[in-house]
Amino acid sequence: MLVKRYKRCPKCGSENSDTAKFCLKCGASLQNVEVFTDLPGANIFETSIDLTDTPTITAGKIPDGFVLAASVEVIGAGENYTEAWKTLMRNLKSILNIKGLDGVANYQVLLSPFQTSAAETKLTLMLYADGILSMKHKNKNPQKSDEKEGAL
């Protein structure tokens, strides 16, 4: 799976190459524009979670318009990479929904074989990230969501 890196034009919103100096659509300067990195597969697997907005997922710093709200740790395991990734994404979307977060930034994904029994080894992916909250949703309270999670 390839990681998608791009710059979003601050004037027209178009995605451009991560090395672009000017927007291909409107010509605006992209000299000091942040490079975004999308987590591969974040939106390709179906889940049973109904999120009204697509979560913001970036390996880069917290995007403008978002604030740090919580730390996020998620594990996904499976017989192969695809199955582990699918589980990781389902779990990530669940955690974002439970904690009332709009996405993650500064993520790292670690790969590790996990021995589930003497005869079986599963591939395990571990994601560590900063949970972020959109300024337009700032009135949400992630702490209340954490309390609900502990009560489950």
From TrEMBL:
Under InterPro entries, the record lists:
Zinc_ribbon_dom
The Zinc-ribbon domain sits at 9-30
Q: What is this protein called?
A: Zinc-ribbon domain-containing protein
State the species of origin: Furfurilactobacillus rossiae
